[in-house]
Structures are given as structure tokens and as C-alpha cells.
Amino acid sequence: MWMICKKEWQQFFSSLTGYLALVVFLLLNGLFLFVFPDSNLLDFGYASLNGYFNLAPWLLLFLIPTITMRSFADEYKSGSFEILKTLPITPTSIVAGKYLGSLLIVLTALLPSVVYAFSMQSLSVTGGIDVGGTIGSYIGLCFLAAVFTAIGITASSFTNNTVVAFIGGAFNCFLLYTGFSAISKLPFFNAGFDYYMELLGIQYHYRSISRGVIDSRDLIYFLGIILVFLFITRKNLLKR
Prior knowledge:
Order of helices and strands: HHHHHHHHHHHH
Distance between the termini: 19 Å
Strand content: under 5%
Low-confidence stretches: none
Radius of gyration: 19 Å
Mean pLDDT: 82
Structural class: mainly alpha
Helix content: over 70%
């Protein structure tokens, strides 16, 4: 498993595409948070990273499928998956290695954003940022990244075309993140059903953890979604 994880890491950073994806992600973060007027954190008048945690999921919708689209699609296309099957590695280890390798890359991309928290804290005249809420938001963001990574890995396991894997990963991440919240607002789901429909979506649980309250129900939801998608990925490998 760790061999696959290491291979995934090295493969991503062995090409210019990997570095370019991370640079674009960090550049967009910087522009939205400190340059563009409508989302500039310095214009809020108080120390808060809420703007970043509202923006980050939408940027991850594109970053993570870019990272995961080659995970299995390239293996199928190049024929190296046939070699991989001959190694004494179980399908579960292959999936876990690919997943952990991609997740490590995503968390590496999120790590520089910790600088934003220290910057806002140092620039604050009084009070500072809400440390508890910020830590909770980062935990929620890591779980969100973990779910998106599992979805992207699954999308890549269905095809040998990296573009199709990217589109499939981004679409499914978008659908599961905001789709249920949008559907819950339909008049058909009135009288309390809108709440249960919204519970099925990722956005509800992400916002719940972002308030600084670590609820076991939210953690179980995220872990359940991750395991479901990794199970689907494993089934796809067994079919091949």
C-alpha cells in the first residue's frame, strides 16, 4: 500500500501539470482572499477566515479531480494496470494506496493556507480570530477534501480517459456537495422533508463542523461516504 502511495506522490510531482495545478490553486486563493474587493478578507473589518472556508470547497471541486483523474485512468491507458495486477498486492491495498497518495497531495495543497490564519491573527487589533471555530473549519475542510478525493478516485476507476475522469469527478463532487441542498428548497419537500433531504448532502455536514462543533454524526457521515466510494472503486478493479 505504501509503495502505491509513494508512487502516486512521485507521479504527480514528476510532471509540470502537478506543480501548475497547485500554483493555480494557491494563486486563486490569494486573489480572492486578498485582492478581489467582494471577497477580500481585509475589507471585512474584523478578523475572520469565513470567506476562505466558504470559497475553498468550490476551488477544491476543480483541484481534486485534477489530482485524481490520472490515478487509474493512466494505469488503464498505459497498460501498467496489467503489471500492477501481477504484483502480490490486493485490490484493497491498491485502492488504499492510490487514495492515501492523492489525499496527501491535497492536504499538502491546503497546508499553506494556515498562513492566512496566522496573518489574520497578527493583523487583528483586538480579539483575534475565533480559534475554536477556525480549527473546526479546518477539520471540516480536511474531511471535505477526503470525500472529494474518494469521489475523484472512483471516477478515475471507471475510464481510461483522464478528461472524462476529471469531468466525472468534478460533476459528482458538485452534485453531492450542493445538489441535495438545492433539491431541499423545492416546494415538494416542505413540511420537514427539506431538512432530511439536506442531511444527505455534504454541504450541510461541512457547515456543521465549520461552526466549531465536532459532531459524531458528521464524522460518521463523512467516513461512510468515503468508504462507499472506495468500495465502488475496489469493485471496479475486481471487474478488470
